[in-house]
Amino acid sequence: MNFGLEGRRLYLCTPDRADLAQFLEAVITGGVDIVQLRDKELEAKPLLERARVVREVCSAHGVPFILNDRPDLALEAGADGVHLGRDDAPCSLARRLLGPGAIIGHSTHSVADLEDALALPVDYLSAGPVVPTPTKPGRPGTGVDYLSTAVARSPWPVYVTGGVTPDAIAGLAAAGARHFVVVRWLTGSSDPAGAARALRLAIDRVVGQD
User: Fold this and answer.
1) DSSP helix/strand/coil, 85
2) Residue 4 lies in a domain
3) Inside any domain, residue 123
4) 166: which residues sit within 8 A by CB, 6+ positions away?
């Protein structure tokens, strides 16, 4: 399936959880339009099993599924792409494994990261976290200035990370953000569908369809 990322604004990054399929159904119904499974604890075989759960739900809704870190498992699971950091497998290897139609994303945290990423065979970048976050322990916030730089210079969509909540959308959008990665606002919610709707509404109000 071919996916255009430009109009996909709300990107969920989630670890595995007991109610994974139901959780994904809820947040996609609420407005999530791209999903990444990011679990640093699972070994390869159980991660592959859970990736297939995500693939099934996402495929049913026409939502791209991205697996974190592992292009080999992304290939085996039938994921739509992979997200890689500086210390993960090279993006060039992921492209060879997954092919020209796969979605490859790459994390950036600084202008130096951005400079390197501009030469990579990727489809989107992430920028951040703009504020410190427990999902990236020990990593300081980049602030919105780096976000603005990344958006201005990247030829691909830039997904902002760190502290994405409905109240934060306006400030992030003012810095140039049009694409948003959310973790805790959804993964920690007792009403994931409602939380996703609130976030999607905030995005659509500020960003609209531009």
Assistant:
1) coil
2) no
3) yes
4) 185, 198, 199, 201, 202
Domain count, the chain: 1
SS3 106: strand
- Nearest Cα to Cα of residue 105 among 87, 129, 121: 121
Alpha-carbon gap, residue 69 to 15, rounded angstroms: 13
- Within the chain, where are the H helices? 20-30, 44-61, 71-77, 91-98, 111-117, 143-153, 169-174, 184-187, 192-207
pLDDT digits (tens, 9 = 90+) for 48-59: 999 999 999 999
Which of 57, 5, 67 is closest to 27 using CA atoms? 57
Domain assignment present for residue 71? The answer is yes
CATH number at residue 60: 3.20.20.70
Pairing label, strands 179-182, 124-127: unpaired
Q: What domain range includes position 17? A: 10-207
Q: Does the predicted TM-score (pTM) go above 0.90?
A: yes
